[in-house]
Amino acid sequence: MACPFKGLTDITRRNFFTAAGGVGLAAVAGAGLGFGLGPAARLFERNPRGAEKFYGAHQAGIVTPQQSHSYFAAFDLTTDKRDEVVSLLKDWTEAAAQMTQGKSVAGDGGDARGLLPSRLTATFGFGAGLFSKDGSDRYGLAARRPATFVDLPKFAGDQLIMEKSGGDLSVQACANDPQVAFHAIRQFARIAGERAHIRWAQTGFLSGGNDGETPRNLMGFKDGTQQPKDHDKFVWVGNEGPDWMQGGTYLVARRIRIALEHWDSMDVAAQEEIIGRKKISGAPLTGRNEFDALDLNATDKDGNYIIPENAHVRLGNAAANGGAEILRRGYSYNDGVNFIAERWPPWRQRIEYDAGLHFISYQRDPKTFIKMFDRMAKQDALNQFTTHNGSAIFACPGGARAGEFIGQRLFV
Amino acid sequence: MACPFKGLTDITRRNFFTAAGGVGLAAVAGAGLGFGLGPAARLFERNPRGAEKFYGAHQAGIVTPQQSHSYFAAFDLTTDKRDEVVSLLKDWTEAAAQMTQGKSVAGDGGDARGLLPSRLTATFGFGAGLFSKDGSDRYGLAARRPATFVDLPKFAGDQLIMEKSGGDLSVQACANDPQVAFHAIRQFARIAGERAHIRWAQTGFLSGGNDGETPRNLMGFKDGTQQPKDHDKFVWVGNEGPDWMQGGTYLVARRIRIALEHWDSMDVAAQEEIIGRKKISGAPLTGRNEFDALDLNATDKDGNYIIPENAHVRLGNAAANGGAEILRRGYSYNDGVNFIAERWPPWRQRIEYDAGLHFISYQRDPKTFIKMFDRMAKQDALNQFTTHNGSAIFACPGGARAGEFIGQRLFV
Which of B197, B334, B348, B389 to substitute to test the interface with A, most A CBs within 10 Å? Predict the structure, then answer.
């Protein structure tokens, strides 16, 4: 198994003890999960407080082991000047390079000095509006939009709130401290000034057992067991993309409210039929251990599939999608309660949890997600409990090398 | 210094390693803070994953060292039967006693099995509506409402949203894992069924450096340095209260949005004048170290107070309040962004952070809070950045002994 900490650098004397403690725990936990996993592909490391590398061939925060907290912000560009877009990306890159290493940025109120780096990553994406908006080629980039970078169609059941969807630019800050993530976004927003305004934002978190164990979503199931191991094949854009997208990837974000009141009233056996996995172990209904492969053909004595035809894991499985895989890196969200009208029986209209999953996936080609999700939106048994109310897609360029800014090669 | 872990029990073999690691770190960090602190009065312990005691003379979650996450829910009672209120409190007590020890409750979907206890506490409070509502003595308790338990007045600047205020019952779940706290509230809501519905809910978190250090609020300042050391004098109701409130306390909750966009545009020196403390160290402007006493009389060469007359810490200080103190146990909250009309220059109306402080204080007599805050609401320099939009007060009865239910002595 590859060392899951190869990105962990710059452990200062002050936080060495904490970070080292985290490494120790993770190494112990990780060892139990064994071989055959991709390089740190599905690890969740909630304890280390050191710094993640910022510069590199890929942006951090994509195949980086997930941190415990996320703050995702989508921005609308409010300038009509290409130069100001360039200067914004330069300023953001510089600030991200500083903050991820636990350093202050000019004018940040000194807040970062009191906090540890906490594995902060900042991941940037470009929305359709950077290329053209309302028919206007406002920055001279319309011709540079990759054909691959399509808009998402309307999916079955979509109940999208436009104020929680779209955006010209995205920044996701992830860290093992919610305030470190939020602090970073506040700095990006402050630095943006009148060049870009926040359009929507979403906080998120992961929880579960010890470091190295698959986190559990708000439905109580392990989430993230099945992930692509071959990132070059499934995540990173290769030669097929323009120069600036090579080493990059496409991000899909979906705000999925889960009717947890209804979910909590189901018995565990019913929940397991819907998901296709066992609740506590995470094993497929056809297996004994979390990482056992699904047996999609196994049937019971009556000839019914053991993993039902509309089970969530069947529809998302590579074997059911012509071998296609997506990298999921979402976070649970919890926005308290709100007055909500349910779309499923018993069609209650009252104060309900506004909580669920801020689904985030990365894929080399958005069509992979679209094809997979189109079928899930129609057939997934889980749809009885979920409502997609926010949606966005962004092109995340390749990583910046030292001295470059994020997306630089798009502007040359 | 008293051991901050005396409430930490039931370390199972599985989580001993983690919990022990937490103890070790905390002991190291705590040692640096030194003597003179009350018994664990202001410690913040974000790492231990063991269990806190549930039964005792006081409810847990009040003077308990703060956990990293909170989920606060206020309920409206929807039954008109006194017996159903009693059965609800019995059911909640039993569930809390189980869940805080990391055990499942019947029908909880097995979720707790995959999570560690994470120092979960559940703290219950009674709102005015338990005693009478809309003029109706619906449970025969109107005469039992203590005279001390007054309603909060309207304070200067209040912009209260009724849907985020009040409530007949409150439960705050705190834990070192956001999902553990939320899971507990979901179980309380499920168990309540048609006896009580959630009225409002608020998630919260703390962040900062290592265990034992004072956490930092969203303004980047250490928050919680000054806390009462004598809980019997300032927190717990004594002989002056009815039997059921002895060993209990009064809880005030205020949802305080902070205009962080404006705050972030201030330089640090100005922020420090407003607060009355130094940002990084937390020391008063008249001192060098975080725990130095405030010198409220110190003046500069021009005769001006070094801690300004309208500085936040001056107005909240015991010496400026006739020796009165309150125990603060609030959490930062972050509900993303929302369309907000600012009440201060530059009176912007646009998407802004819906984030700030879910202020929670405990005091032996609500009048202590009312007197202190009435002046702060009028004079505090910090008011330029804050808007109180939610408010509630609850009587938290004394703790339950094994075999009792929370509040039992109110119903005999």
Answer: B334
Burial B89-127 (b: 16+ CB within 10 A, else e): bebbbebbbbbbbbeebeebbbbbebbbbbbbbbbbbbb
Whether residues B372 and B228 share a domain: the answer is no
Predicted confidence pLDDT, tens digits, chain B (412 residues):
333 333 333 333 223 223 333 332 232 222 222 233 333 444 688 888 899 999 999 999 999 999 999 999 999 999 999 999 999 999 999 999 999 999 988 888 766 667 889 999 999 999 999 999 999 999 999 999 999 999 999 999 999 999 999 999 999 999 999 999 999 999 999 999 999 999 999 999 998 766 678 889 999 999 989 899 999 999 999 999 999 999 999 999 999 999 999 999 899 999 999 999 999 999 999 999 999 999 999 999 999 999 999 999 999 998 889 999 999 999 999 999 999 887 777 778 899 999 999 999 999 999 999 999 999 999 999 999 999 999 999 999 999 999 999 999 999 8
Select from B25, B261, B334 the Cβ nearest to the Cβ of A21.
B25
A190 to B265: CB separation less than 8 angstroms, yes or no: yes
> What range defines the domain where residue B375 resides?
260-392
Question: Does a cis peptide bond (omega within 30 degrees of 0) precede residue A346?
Answer: yes
Do B230 and B297 lie in a common domain? no
Cis peptide before B346 (omega within 30 of 0): yes
CA of residue A123 relative to chain centroid, distance? 10
ipTM of model: 0.87
Q: Are residues B175 and B46 part of one domain?
A: yes
Q: Is residue B15 part of a domain?
A: no
* Cβ <8 Å between B216 and A179: yes
Regarding pTM above 0.95, the answer is: no
What is the tally of structural domains in chain B? 2
Q: Which residues of A touch B350 (CB under 8 A)?
A: 197
Selecting from A115, A116, A198 the residue whose C-beta is nearest the C-beta of B337 gives: A198
